[in-house]
Specification:
three-stranded antiparallel β-sheet, Immunoglobulin-like, about 260 residues, Substrate Binding Domain Of Dnak, Chain:A, Domain 2, alpha+beta
Length: about 260
């Protein structure tokens, strides 16, 4: 509101150098109407003599960019979508939407977004403190996601059977997905129904057997579980868009064609 008055006073004081308030297109048209002989400049036009620019920051302290992207994906593709799906499907109306927790986690993440921080061009101490904020944001996001998955498990009707271990696979994408899913299971040798620790099959919710492969097999530390083996396995899961599918681990011999 002050600019028109400033322009008026200027033009009264300096009539030989008139000012005019207008838009950028008008300015360009006025310049070109005089058919001036102008120099041409090409390239990124970021000379540091006249512009304080932070160049080369895309690769500076790459771990910052990697952690930031991973945590953004955690909230965008897992924590928030799953919480929203459960909130909309909760037939018991007991699920407390974790808005406050997610907001707190995202605030810690955003506090790492000032340009000197996210660009990685500040002093070492600044970026050491960023690690802690990344940790807090990631821990909150993972905890909310874990609790949401546990609540989702309560919403699903699963036949009570100690010989059937359910696996829930969640697809955060808005389209049907067929991809590799990983799971870890600790098989107690004396567990009922499991004659051998490696004798189990994977079934889908229709009872079809699913091929899988061992990625890693290791004995659990004795201070945790005596006489147990941990199996890290992979199988091909097919899950609907923005949804989940149930699979089950049951006693039995592994499919021969599983590789």
């Amino acid at each position: 509101s002050e600019i028109p008055e400033i322009v008026r006073q200027w033009n009264e004081m300096y009539p030989e150098k008139l000012l005019e308030q207008n838009d950028f297109e008008y300015y360009v048209d006025k310049v070109l109407s005089g058919n001036p002989q102008l120099k041409q400049f090409k390239g990124e036009l970021r000379g540091g003599k006249y512009a304080h620019l932070l160049s080369g920051v895309f690769s500076a302290r790459m771990w910052i960019k990697q952690r930031n992207t991973a945590i953004e994906y955690l909230y965008e593709k897992y924590t928030e979508p799953l919480s929203t799906i459960i909130w909309s499907l909760d037939k018991y109306k007991k699920f407390n939407y974790p808005q406050a927790y997610m907001l707190t986690g995202l605030k810690w993440l955003i506090k790492n977004h000032p340009h000197d921080s996210i660009c990685g061009c500040s002093i070492d101490q600044v970026h050491k403190e960023m690690e802690t904020r990344f940790d807090w944001a990631e821990q909150i996001g993972n905890e909310v996601f874990k609790n949401s998955m546990l609540y989702l498990n309560d919403l699903i009707t699963v036949e009570e059977d100690e010989k059937r271990i359910p696996i829930l696979v969640f697809n955060p994408l808005p389209w049907k997905r067929k991809d590799v899913a990983n799971f870890n299971i600790i098989s107690i040798i004396k567990k009922a129904g499991f004659k051998n620790p490696d004798a189990f099959k994977i079934l889908d919710s229709e009872g079809n057997e699913i091929a899988y492969q061992y990625v890693q097999i290791s004995e659990e530390p004795r201070y945790r579980l005596i006489g147990s083996v941990s199996y890290y396995c992979s199988f091909l899961a097919e899950v609907p868009a923005c949804g989940y599918r149930s699979y089950y681990i049951v006693p039995g011999e592994k499919l021969e064609e599983s590789v």
